Amino acid sequence: MNRLLPLLIALVIAVVAFSSSVFVVRERDYALVFALGEVKRVISEPGLYFKLPPPLQNVVTLDKRLLTIDLQEAERIQTSEKKNLLIDSFVKWRVVDPRLYYVTFGGNERAARERLQAQIRDALNASVNVRTVKDVVSLERDVIMQEVLTNVAKRAEGLGVQIVDVRLKRIEFAPEIAESVYRRMESERIRVANEQRSIGAAEGEKIRAEADRQREQIVAEAYGRAQAIMGEGDAQAAGIYAKAYGEDLGFYSFYKSLEGYKASFGKPGDVLVVDPSSDFFKYLKSSSGK
């Protein structure tokens, strides 16, 4: 038993030394192998690796996944009109140079976030300060995001990180100016609505006037055509009458005299003062008109 004890102790020491010399790098991590405080290796591929046991060498892992900085509070930023806006934003970033990142921040992700937040704040100020409220809220929002992305990405190159994307989530007016801005926006919308109503009323009057002109033109043309047709009809009727009456002039004279009597004595109480011996009464005196 006394002979086996040293062997067991040696075996335990070997197992402990072996286990402290083996480490696993996951797919989502970088591994930095340190020797006496100096980075000796940077491992980015997942797998099983070996190193010297502590304190000769030790391993520090860094997250290489896509990370998000989501600001907890909206940034108060002033526009070119001296109006304060509250802007919420978020940033997607990742570690691309583990050695530089560790040297800069000592592997402290919180310190990296705080540095990037400060840079984002500076970039937002630089882009918003030179624009109006209207530009920031609607007209140039995409331009501002691209400017902030370019600005922060350039400054982050020396930190060992890559800025993947920058987005403005929410833009609101500061409470002290919100009411006045809303009232001004309301007045502007009312002005535009009244202007559109005026334009619509003018267009309506123009359309109605054109319709009335076309109606008058159509009625006049129709009346002219009707008169022409009536004239042609009267001419044809007169021709037919003339042809018919020309075949018996005596009958024609008798018929016309009857129409004259009818027109002269058509109503009760009609009085006609004329010489009884005139030709007008010739058919009243004799059916032959003699």
TrEMBL record:
Please cite one Gene Ontology biological process associated with this protein.
Answer: proteolysis
Give the InterPro entries listed for this entry.
Answer: Band_7, Band_7/SPFH_dom_sf, HflC
Location in the cell reads:
Membrane
- Is Cytoplasm included in the keywords of this UniProt record? no
Q: Which Gene3D superfamilies match?
A: Band 7 domain (3.30.479.30)
* Keywords for the protein's UniProt record, in alphabetical order: Hydrolase, Membrane, Protease, Transmembrane, Transmembrane helix
- Known SMART domains for this protein? PHB
Primary subcellular site in the record, as a coarse category: membrane
Molecular function per GO: peptidase activity
In the bilayer, the protein is annotated as: Single-pass membrane protein
Give an example GO cellular component term for this record.
membrane
- Provide the leader sequence positions: none
Checking SUPFAM superfamilies in the record gives: Band 7/SPFH domain
Highest rank taxon of the organism: Bacteria
UniProt domain Band: residue ranges: 20-185
**What does this chain do?**
HflC and HflK could regulate a protease.
Family note: Belongs to the band 7/mec-2 family. HflC subfamily.
Q: What is this protein called?
A: Protein HflC
Q: Which organism is it from?
A: Zwartia hollandica
